[in-house]
Amino acid sequence: MDFAAAQQRIQFLSTEINRHNYHYYVLDKPLISDYDFDQLLDELIELERAFPGLASPNSPTQRVGGDITKEFKTVKHKYPMLSLGNTYSEEELTEFDNRIRKAIGDKFEYVAELKFDGLAISLTYKNGELVQALTRGDGTQGDDVTTNVKTIRSVPLTLPPGDYPEEFEIRGEVFIQRPNFEKLNQKLAAELREKGFDEEEIAEQLYKNPRNFASGSMKLQNSAEVAKRKLDCFLYFLYCNEPIAETHFDSLKKAASWGFKVSDHYKKCSSIAAVMEYIHYYDKHRDQLSYDIDGIVIKVNNYAQQQELGFTAKNPRWAISYKFKAQSATTQLLKVTYQVGRTGAITPVANLKPVLLAGTTVKRASLYNADEIERLDLHESDIVFVEKGGEIIPKITGVDLTKRALTAAKISYATHCPECGSELVRKEGEAVHYCLNEYACPPQLKGKIEHFIGRRAMNIDSLGTETINGLFDKGLIKNYADLYKLTREQLLGLEFTIGDEGNFKKRSLQEKSVMNILKGIEDSKQVPFERVLFAMGIRMVGETVAKKLAQHFRTIDSLMNATPEELLSVNEIGDKIGEQVIRFFADDKNRCMVRSLLNSGLRFEVKDEEGFERSDKLAGKSFLVSGTFSISRDDLKKLIEANGGRNVSSVSAKLDYLVAGDKMGPEKLKKAEELNVKIITEQEFFELVK
Ligand code: IVH
Questions:
Q1: Which residue of the set 115, 150, 388, 547 is catalytic?
Q2: How many C-beta neighbours within 10 Å does residue 182 have?
Q3: Active-site residue flag, 195
Q4: Is 321's C-beta closer than 6 angstroms to any atom of ligand 1?
Q5: 228-254, pLDDT tens digit by residue?
Q6: Reported pTM
Q7: Quick one: fold of 328-433?
Q8: Do the domains 328-433 and 3-64 match in fold?
């Protein structure tokens, strides 16, 4: 194909793909099959590869992302991005209505809209092309996230011909549809489970709610990762220099006609009573939407009237939001069960009669500890109120006392471990009960091994929860040191079950998995001392503490033999942590395990592989590095730590030094100047550690 023909074909394919994207992602009414769509896209990818000069930055092939943004550029908004005043009651809404009446009289109407729960975004189009996408930031300036926004399929990159102005800005909300959010969370949970994380850790790492997910995604530096996140975007406000309509309502219609995704749920309301009706309707039916809303936005429709009303310092006077109360449901408590964590900590769980809440079925709620059960005065078979705040794990907020049977017995906290039968202990001043049988209680033993192989610990990702369970149940491993004694013969053909609650599958280990497992175990022998120390699961020794201990004591011998005074002398190690470290190494079983790990060849001393000389020249000082330097930012940070300094991630009045490199964010610089933080160059920094 010659250049001219390729140009024509690329033009045709781009328009066609954009049209199909619009029908699929904006109108939700695809015209062709996924297969046919992929054929068009593949052809375009091929042609652009053959004629790179013809690939436009807004080509539909750019949706898959790939560009890495090191630091987002901060850009000033042409029109400030204000937030809205919030109201929580009908009285407050009536007051808003009265204020408007007083200012512009009775002749006006409102538009009521859904308040989408995501991240505000401002898009600029020039000659029908998306040229910039900014986050709200502080309202005056935001981050340039154009590369990430281009991966959102419902955001048009190129508009088909239409009556839009040469340049305009359109604002909206980036969000994720709830079913997509749940699917991504399920996928993440499965991956983490496979990597050996325990359920507690998995729950911690899951995306907490669609809103955080959307805003977190926009901050990712790898746009290819953003592209996988199935984000969506509703647009709800238009800014043009030239008038394109007299009312907000008509602007929304225009925006939709140009190809933007505008929700169908906006409505003209001639009175505040009509607004209330709209609010009541959506408060009741919001579960039926496939995305989260957290309230209703009310705007005066006419632009001239909006202008007359103007703004306060923070918000427009012509618009307000009405926030919904958290959603709740009632259901029956079936029973309280108890989970045993790797440290022996007991978590009581309310098992509930399944109930639909905010679009998902709720079967369980955490009860946290015995105090919480006491606070709720929970009785058997109680009818309870469950509520979902912004989080996915619901909580019980109260009990419907009118429905309690006279004979119902109070829930009395378990006295013995549900797994091993030992007596539970609650220490003075602590809220949590513990099973102290740490060397024989199966979930604790398995939990410790799972923690040991975890990604942030020894990172043996060829082992998963199910394999650990299988190995443990067959008696092949009793503790994590036993992992290093496993042989090919023991593993080959080993049977274990996967799945849960009536959905079991039997699996047996084949040659390839066995090789992978053994390789993973072998590779873990290179993991640095600080992570080995974290992996050992000493109570209260998390990643940061492990790092501090490793750097201070340098070898396992000096740590094992440290006195309480020596431990206390380490920066940020207090009595309680010291006590746990002493307790751990005082136990012969643990000493034995360390010896066994040492014999297996694990790293038990700090290697100064970074080649940085150590000193305490920067002791007690905090540093924030921003921008680019002659060495990598990671190396600069390591150098700071090697000299006793501390790296922090944001500017505050407590920050000692901001090390300013090339292309550093102006926002950080401005804040540091305002707070009188000392700003130094790379050269000045090297002087400090010379
Ligand atoms: S209008 C000046 N409409 O709620 C007009 N905002 O505090 C400003 N939001 O930052 C926004 N849905 O992120 C508007 N239909 C909607 C909205 C909406 C969600 C968010 C937006 C804004 C915040 C208001």
A1: 115
A2: 16
A3: no
A4: yes
A5: 999 999 999 999 988 899 999 999 999
A6: 0.61
A7: OB fold (Dihydrolipoamide Acetyltransferase, E2P) (2.40.50)
A8: no
